[in-house]
Amino acid sequence: MPHPFQVTARCGTTRARTGRLSLVHGTVDTPVFMPVGTLGTVKALAPEDLTAAGARIILGNTYHLYLRPGCDVIERFSGLHRFMNWDRPILTDSGGFQVFSLAKLTRITEEGARFQSHIDGSSHLLTPEKSIEIQITLDSDILMCLDQCIAYPAERRAAREALEITARWAERCLRTWRETSGEKNALFGIVQGGMYEDLRRMSAEALTAMEFSGYALGGLSVGEPNQMMYDVAEAALPLLPDDRPKYIMGVGTPEDLVELTARGADMFDCVMPTRNARNGQLFTRRGTLNIANSRHRTDTAPIDPECGCYTCRNYSRAYLRHLYQSREILAYRLNTLHNLHYYLSLVAGMREAIRCGRFAGFRKDFYNAREAASEK
Amino acid sequence: MPHPFQVTARCGTTRARTGRLSLVHGTVDTPVFMPVGTLGTVKALAPEDLTAAGARIILGNTYHLYLRPGCDVIERFSGLHRFMNWDRPILTDSGGFQVFSLAKLTRITEEGARFQSHIDGSSHLLTPEKSIEIQITLDSDILMCLDQCIAYPAERRAAREALEITARWAERCLRTWRETSGEKNALFGIVQGGMYEDLRRMSAEALTAMEFSGYALGGLSVGEPNQMMYDVAEAALPLLPDDRPKYIMGVGTPEDLVELTARGADMFDCVMPTRNARNGQLFTRRGTLNIANSRHRTDTAPIDPECGCYTCRNYSRAYLRHLYQSREILAYRLNTLHNLHYYLSLVAGMREAIRCGRFAGFRKDFYNAREAASEK
Hints:
The structure is a homodimer.
Chain A: E1 5-10, E2 17-23, E3 26-30, E4 32-34, H1 47-53, E5 58-60, H2 62-67, H3 71-75, H4 80-84, E6 90-92, H5 96-101, E7 104-108, E8 113-116, E9 123-126, H6 128-138, E10 142-144, H7 156-180, E11 186-191, H8 197-209, E12 214-217, H9 226-236, E13 246-248, H10 254-262, E14 267-269, H11 272-278, E15 281-284, E16 287-290, H12 310-314, H13 317-325, H14 329-355, H15 359-375
Helix pairs in contact in A: 1-14, 6-7, 7-8, 10-14, 11-14, 13-14, 14-15
């Protein structure tokens, strides 16, 4: 199993750390935020936009790409990189989460997940083997094991069954990866267990008994209170091997990234910066603003005068509001560029602070800037 | 009146010519195609995209910008250039065409055009004076006189009344421009007269009696047969002063650009390359293709292997089809980049051919490439 991770610095007062992931398509410094490129494009952006915003790795969705354009298409390009013109690393999820959240009539058996496409109702079976095979076709730098996600709240019994099937599927994923992948691209295991700390421990023990390149916490940010998510992460992250990257899936807000980095997480992905951008919600150091608000109508200032992104260097709030109100396509690109720049600068700032031994101060400043703004 | 135009070369066998327009925000070689930036953005593109595609001048729509975001907003930016981050020349239309085609309950009097906004139904009066004042607020490099457009077919009497009011409005535009513009930005007059050659002559005489920086033919490409448009242009273009730029408004297809350049036209604008791009219609030397067509599903080739645009250098038909079928925002940008590159390369090719004395050959090659493709 590739062992692509090295811890490069540690915070003295929290579990925060920096590290370096060495992947087939390049190296990635952690903590890292991975923009979500669901259908072979981070919505509204071209690859050059991502590079300019500082993205080093993006996420692709196996479920979506399997249905559209289909593996036979991506195979012609020897993988997702050439298909979408992105030459840096890609992590793909297993498809499990979308099977549970998007597909219709999903039925879980030991064999896998049978579901109907949300696009055309066609019937499909996603097994652990199939998920790995698809991800190998995509030529992901990091593949994820198929897991069973559960809703929140979940009964203890359902959470336990889900983590057990997740562990058995992980073994099948590992075997398929060994037999078919060439073993050069990394494979991560996923810890489940709902909000039950002892079940998270049980899942972590089962997964770490198998050797994976890295480990993820799945099933967080599914509707539970924020503090509960932090508590589960705080309990579960130390159960994962210190020398492997620790990835919290589908998380989160800027605060979540700061709090979970403090608890030892290395990797994040979330649709929030990109989706919110398309809804006119823009992130700044001093909190979020809604560009549709009429108070921006004649405002010649940028979204954030302290921001160095392409959007803030070249466009005013008045122009961005006009584009957004007119539903102009450029609005989505400019807003997305800004929000991703914000997220990627946030994790870059954390990396720098951890390296320099001032992460605690960084965290304090992060909250102070927001409080000062809300007092205004 | 600024006299910004110089003829730089002439075709020996047709009326085609090259020229140079010296405008406040830069120089523009003609024949030129002006991408349409209706609402302060050429749909789906950023200014850098336009520059990369070779755009030297773009068009803004006075009617649209007056309603959204409104002149008070653009005034804060001292004009449209800074508002939209475009530092090259801009031509604005007068608003007349949209008042007739988009607005509701339009009523023409000697005073001007009273209409209801297509957005919120609010009532407005667009007079010649008002149109010029708005265009001065936009700080256009080239302002257009308010004209009265008529539908096709039109009775002779209606065509005559429209050209007469257009001439009287042109005088009022000229007066307003002299009194309020600083007289540095150019003002063009518009020749009307429907499809009646003698009325076109009457309109041209009235307009050229006033001194404008350039002259446009309005009221073409409004539903008449193509050959009729060519005939009207062929008759009317020589009636305009040889030392002034001649602009055919709202035209046209690639063939129209070639045919009308041969008849002595210097400037064009049309939504066709941008709008068709958003509908998946892509232009190539060998004709147009529909990217949604299933025959592109697994095609690893670019739209046009001979095209040097960003889209063709980096993306396959299969990827573009996937983006288009998935309604991904990036589809609109990549398709628009390609189509504008095609149009801008076409006029650049004509300029080069005219300069080198081989325009007739260029025109022949243009048709040959299409015929060869359609025979396949």
